[in-house]
What does this fold into?
Amino acid sequence: MWDYSEKVIEHYRNPRNVGKIDDATCVGQAGSLACGDSLKIYLKIKDGIVTDAKFQTFGCGSAVASSSILTEMIIGKSLDEVKKITNKDIADQLEGLPPEKMHCSVMGYEALEDALKGYFDLDEVITAESSEKLICSCFDVTEGQILKAIEENHLTTVEQVTNFTKAGGACGKCKGQIQDILNGATGKTEERCNLSMAQKVLKINNIIDTQISPELRKDGGDITLVDVDGDRVLVKLRGNCAGCKNSNLTLKTFVETTLRDAVCKDIIVVEVA
Amino acid sequence: MLIYLDNNATTKVDEQVLEAMLPYFSEQYANPSSIYDFAKPAARAIKEARGQMKDFLNAANENEIYFTASGSESANMAVRGVLGTNKNKRHIITSKVEHACIFNLYRQLEKEGYRVDFIDVNAKGELDLAQLKEKIDFDTALVSIMYANNETGVVFPVKEIAQIIKSKNPETKFFTDAVQAAGKIKIDVQDLGVDLLAVSGHKFHAPKGAGALYVNPGTMITPLIVGGHQERGKRAATENVPYIAGIGKAAVLAADGLGYEATEIKRLRDKLEAGILKNIFNARLNTGVTNRVPNTTNIGFEYIEGELILLHLSDLGICASSGSACTSGSLEPSHVLRAMNVPFTSIHGSIRFSLSKYTTEKEIDYVIEKMPAIIDKLTGLSPYQDELDALKKLKM
It folds into this structure.
């Protein structure tokens, strides 16, 4: 079972400000029934101050607690203060959430953002959002939402992104894209090898035939592909290359580098007799 | 107060089982393979337990019983073991509602190059037997279909499935994961006609860490754990004597308790189910009423999330479980309920209650009394008030 903080327990047991405001100034919504959690937040705003807030949540203990504490955090605050609230603030107020439950605090933040959008009627922002690239189609998570979560919470792994945004948590098809977004955001250039084994073998064979073998032949040597075992590429050196005391250098500096650049960064070239 | 209604997750160890185990920790601690007299009681304890398990499953011979450390190990040993002796066949079949130990193993085998078919179930959780029959071909090495489902309690017609398989391809092996059937309904491997069958002790009042696998004499398997000669070379590792003694004793007690299970436990389960469905307008039974083990009910509460229900039950000392995404740490709800097409209005709010011989009428009455207030409170939190109002009108 989850190790919820006392604060989370207190809030799901006795949620504050439950319900709807019939004459709300604006209403925000996040999540969906199919996804397993959703939240509606109602705000009453007067003279730039949030005078009242209520919520309705379909979700787990931490989703209810996040919504409940969010209403407490914004009532009586100016819009300038409310606009600055992030998902991390919500999680901090709850004295932390289990990593797998961080997306609940993000949902609270998104519902608040949605409500404020309605209030300020920022058309250009809404258009920009709606044309934004959808990354996770299972949970409707966009590139912008993922980038925001990465930036505000200093995320570094796909698993963390899933915990915070749910993206990649169902079918998992978008995990490669999430990795790409992470690489872009953190300046990493690492690439994952997404080839099937057959594709990999074909590609390695092709690179050896067209790029590596012709170069070695110029020096009177040659190379043949013996086998591919995961990331290990087993090759046989022939002609002048065989028995050459520089053959290991050839393998590492030329053959391996060429294959790594062209096929997959994890490749290790091994010479077999 | 503790009301434990999560007996499909694990059960309390029976005092008599514990008593049967205790001598083999610090008194009769010898390695049963040793030659001296001091090792005889340990060796005898294993022999006795093997006989008890043989009787429990009605196997023909003690040699058909292998002890393991869990149901998952038994299942892996059965599947990998059959495929290991039958390497030229590349097709395997299972259902869409298997326990993770088979479901994920089959997903793994798919990656390893096997052709895999996952058979559908209907909205009541019943297996599509016509589809199963159609999928079996000359290349099918193994069919793995569970006996009773852990989440819904739905019982599959294992004997009929065995007949279908053997009529289509007599060489195809049939393994059934009987972990949730053992101790709840009678298991008779000879009558069922299965080739392999797995049970797990902690589901019938033995401790966690004790399992068994039945393999009929016509079925060859390769070992999963290679090493010493234990379990006739099929499962290396020094025998866990106290736990084997425990699962043997638990098997005897479980066989004796089948009558109580079929009458009294079923009566209490039915009472709990009826009490909840009658008093709560947004509750629905996720299965059919028949073809279930006597101790399990799976009820969906519409427009409420399951973890929140469990947390509130827990505050009252009531232990149950949920197929909701949030409880498992995964983000998707149970694959079993999804395979049954349980509507998404209630799939996230599905709660499983599973009883045992220790469940009392007083406990069931208490749960029936407390449920409506919990559900009412949580229904009030839901953003789907319009939908709930419509549902209420429909039911009233």
Q: What stands out?
A: Residues 92 and 105 of chain A are 10 Å apart (CA to CA).
